[in-house]
Amino acid sequence: MSRIATPSSIAAAPAAAQPLLQAVEKQLGAVPNLFRMVANSPAALGGYLGMSGALAKGRLPASTRERIALAIAEINGCNYCLSAHTYLGKNLARLDEAEIMANRHGGSTDPKAAAAVHFAARVAQSRGHVGDGDLSAVRLAGYDDGEIIEIVQHVALNVWTNYINEVAQTEIDFPVVSARDAA
């Protein structure tokens, strides 16, 4: 059971959050527990959706964004996010099992994506204190400064969702995957 209240429906959420949750439902076909729980603060929900929406218009493909989310969820041990992004990775980004496992270990079976995921993992592990070699490696893989900024922004967004889900102990409403399942 979640340690922070999760409104049971859109109608049970604060009025200011209801239009935001309706938009989530329209886009996803459902409103996952994370969104309903965060709706306790319409400002936080708006901020999360705004950043997520802006990054979706960025230059990193959806598959790379999911790969980063998987790596960060594994690093932070967030089972809610790991479950959600495993589901999204398989069903939306069309990542296979081998790719998902590689992502969870900070890599990828795709060489360019591997550089982005590895860099994202280094950013998270070092709390942003990456070395020149880390930046050089991601640049050599073909990422420019704008894409590097997007990678860092994705790390920040995923760290936030990992932390809020761990604080709340959000009930997982996806097929459950645990960080300790990574072999």
TrEMBL record:
Residues 47-120 form the Carboxymuconolactone decarboxylase-like domain. GO terms for molecular function: peroxiredoxin activity. This is Carboxymuconolactone decarboxylase family protein. It comes from Mesorhizobium erdmanii.
